Amino acid sequence: MNEMTTLSYQQHAYSAAAQKSLSRKPALFINGEWVASSHGELIDVEDPSSGKVVSQIVDASVADTDRAVAAARAAFDDGRWSGLPPIAREKIMLRLADLIEAHAEEFAELEAIDNGKPKTMAGAIDVPGAVSHIRYMAGFAAKVGGETTPPYTLPAGAFFTYTVKEPVGVCAQIVPWNFPLLMACLKVGPALAAGCTIILKPAEQTSLTALRLADLIAEAGIPAGVVNVITGYGHVSGDRLVKHPDVDKVAFTGSTEIGKLINKNATDTLKHVTLELGGKSPVVVMPDVDVAEAAPGAAGAIFFNSGQVCVAGSRLYAHRSVFDQVVEGIANTASFWAPRPSLDPAAHMGPLVSQEQFDRVMGYIEAGKRDGASVAMGGDAPSADGYYVNPTMLVNVNPQMSVVREEIFGPVVVAQRFDDLDEVVKEANNTQFGLAASVWTKDASTLHKLASRIKAGTVWANCHAMIDVALPFGGYKESGVGREQGRAGIEAYLETKSVIMKL
Ligand code: NAI
Ligand code: MG
After folding, report:
1. pLDDT below 50 — which residues of the chain?
2. How far is the CA of 473 from the centre of ligand 2 (A)?
3. Cα–Cα distance measured from residue 211 to residue 229, given in angstroms and rounded to the nearest whole number
4. How far, CA to CA in Å, does 358 sit from each of 45, 62, 218, 397?
5. Domains of the chain (ranges, CATH numbers)
6. What is residue 198's three-state secondary structure?
7. Rounded to two decimals, what is the model's pTM?
């Protein structure tokens, strides 16, 4: 504990490159140009490590949003992108990936200042991940196509039948604040490879890297209007995108609550919808594990990115025979995960993204205590400017408590015991969500049983949150609709057309 109270919460100095981004004139990227908003409304940008306002961005109006959609529509309809030879699209996308990579240091710092995540983490995870999404999807530009499918009821010799894949069209891509650049590239990559045009709307809390990305999109040679970046609040510009008749698809990552609203709002214009939503992912620790490996693994599953991860391992189920050891092993990681300012090279965990998120997470911890949970680790926040919350573990919890049922989106894990496989499968599935799970065991048979019985889009074994762009990612139940990444990821940006020719 002493070690934690002597930490410094003073944010470190910004580099010249970061200061340049912070002092850029607030503008929207529409039709290849930086333009002012129709109304002069701005949104403050905070550094969560200090709580200070460090920049401002535009709050795009409905008129601004319409302008961005019109640009994307025109760019789609004249085929300036989809009409290029696929090799040209692939080359430009690879150039974009190279440019992001060349600015890795700058992106990592901007993300750390904007979101609060440690710069070291942004540099190790977010930026290389963003590059991989663009690079991997670039390869699909030339490699997805239809089939010459023989007919079934029609006479084969009298008809020639085939399918073609075509881009869905104008795509609205609405991303959250927890992995801003990574989520932007995860969305932009497949849409570009498919030949779509885009209006990207980053989260109002974290738009800096998306704006910098727009510079590189232009530099890479992506034609004007193909990718437009508008910043602003979800209920204004986001809502307009979702309802706009000229938008063909909405891809959203964020809360389940807003995901449901978007699904409803997209109905009148029957848009294609991809939703990556919340989770309450279980971490199941079987009795045969090496606790020295599993306990830090379970700690990382929840404390990475301050628990602001859709796949955060927020419900721990440890077998009764190892429960106490696992809880102790996690508690022992407290000083490793103690929150520090995002530019501190020693930081493994930063502050939460905002005052709103801080209040929400502290509110859940208080609710858990009121409901009778005991604090086995943390449970409090250091007194500091900025939105720091200490890594927290609650025990003596039950399945009715809000801390067990709801997505907290902070560094808070609830730990429960179990006795047998059927019991833990039932509890793991006792949730509205179905995004991910991890199971920790050396026994291959147990592993396969759990992998098949847990209802989740991704199941990890002896690791957690290992994401690979080649593997489809998405949720069961209320964790989402559709898949991103892998071949499924590009298919979500394609229409299939059947051509039936009478010879
Ligand atoms: P949110 O779901 O409201 O925001 C995500 C994105 O959606 C942002 O770009 C926002 O501007 C946009 N948006 C908001 N309302 C919209 C609307 N009516 N139409 C179109 N776009 C809209 O998430 P928020 O409010 O920042 O966080 C609240 C909670 O959501 C968090 O505490 C966390 O539990 C959850 N969350 C989950 C994420 C995940 O990856 N699973 C990511 C972010 C938040
Ligand atoms: Mg919201």
Report:
1. 1-4
2. 23
3. 7
4. 16, 30, 36, 22
5. 19-277+479-499 (3.40.605.10), 282-469 (3.40.309.10)
6. strand
7. 0.97
